[in-house]
Amino acid sequence: MAELFDDLYRELILDHYRRPRNHGELPDAPIRVEGVNPVCGDEIHLDLKVADGAIADIGFWGHGCSISQSSASMLTERLKGRPLDEAGRVTKKVRAMLIDGELPDSELGDLEALEGVARLPVRVKCALLCWNVLEQGLAEAATTA
Amino acid sequence: MLDIERLREDFPILHQRVNGHRLVYLDSAATTQKPRAVIDALVNYYETSNANIHRGIHTLAQRATEQYEDTRAKVARFIGASNPEDVVFTRNTTESINLVAHSWGDRFIGEGDEIVISQMEHHSNIVPWQLLAARAGAAVRFASLTPDGHLDVDSLRALIGPRTKLVSLMHMSNVLGTINPVAEFAEMAHRAGALFLLDAAQSVPHLPFDVRATGADFVAFSAHKMLGPTGVGVLWAREGLLEEMDPFMGGGDMIATVREEASTWAEVPHKFEAGTPNIADVIALGAAIEYLEALGMDEVRRHEVALTAYAMDTLERIPGLAIHGPRDPEERGGVVSFEVPGVHPHDMATIADGHGVAIRAGHHCAQLLMRQLRVPATSRASFSVYNGEDDIAPLVEAIEHARKVFA
Predict the structure, then answer these.
(1) Complex confidence, ipTM
(2) Is pLDDT of A92 > 60?
(3) Preferred mutation among A6, A8, A11, A40 to probe B, highest tally of B CBs within 10 A
(4) What range defines the domain where residue B16 resides?
(5) CATH number of B10's domain
(6) Residue among B13, B72, B37 at smallest CA distance from B295
């Protein structure tokens, strides 16, 4: 059982928690979305700049547990500069891994480090928070495009 | 002295391993575990006495009614109340408070009136008053806290005035452990002509409780935090108050007569117990009370003060660890909220779970208090009669493990 917990706090997750990538507000970002997990108070803000059907720039900020914050950091690293349809696809695959327990798809890259979270149902919502926020952002991008 | 080793034999749930370790249950402020006597009372009721109460003529109905009403008398005795008729059974503390907010509040709170509570309160002693204030055009005022986690008596005194109709405060904080000097608060309320409601959810289960000594007009608490089953709450009201109040919910069991034009109400407390109540769980609460009385509430309190002192001393040796609330274990209950630098409470609780240690992490239904403490959440260990000093070492191990992971 101890492995279950060691598997949760993989070095990659802890690294993103200690040194979050793309952290901070994006001044004059046209899309600003946020989400709160009311049960635990975790909070994620995503600022997005979209150009030519791709995420030109992305920044995140907020507070919460290591899983919620590292998931957001990995999200920004994985999707910065990537096309919107790829962002949608990756979001679906993260959900499949976290909610349905599917094996990580190769397209997820480093995000596969979150695989261990799927085995701790109470923590899945921590990892999903930023992905829910991203979906709001992508929906906004679709209506403004 | 409580014999913890022997006492643990009474709690079947404690004899299991969680994630490969002995279960160490440190979440009794959320809900306590149940002794065999309470579980047996539930089974026994369903196997020998199950029937609907109050109107039945047959033997089982009489037996069930007797056991149900017998528990009302036990509750009254346990809290030092003279009349069992002043005890109303609800679903939980939250429902007890909502009952007062509707049945008393809708009748006696009007425009411009004020309800005084504090920043320490559980959401169940905040939101019902906000809803009432919105219905009535009244206002809710919040007493502040001192830096060491006590309720600021001066701020409370300044808030209570001629507009105050109700003061509603908790007896023991579910986050800080602080035990409030409630008799003093009751006197302040009464001097202003206001009533005083006491949220005793955390105190009745853990210390000798005498309703007369508190000076309260209403007292609310829950069975499931005092070794009893879930689904039963208690509202006690000072003699005569229930008569002045309107019914909370309408239906069977709460009426005297029903006619097309209008209906009349049953005598108190039945006026407030509409529909078939939670008979089995009420009866099992009776068994929980007998269990606590056999231990002796003085002994329970002594045990928990000693354990809290030991836990605080031990945890404070961990570098950087901070404990919220009063320093003196005599001024607090068996609730220890703490911060481990660099470790978010949810990560702390997950790692503790890996050690078989059940603690709680979050805002503990006290978001106003979290804002005062300037933290989004805390980790909380809370104790009951079955906890001993041997439960603290596994907690310390878990904290050390978390510090290593997040170093």
Answers:
(1) 0.88
(2) yes
(3) A40
(4) 4-30+297-405
(5) 3.90.1150.10
(6) B37
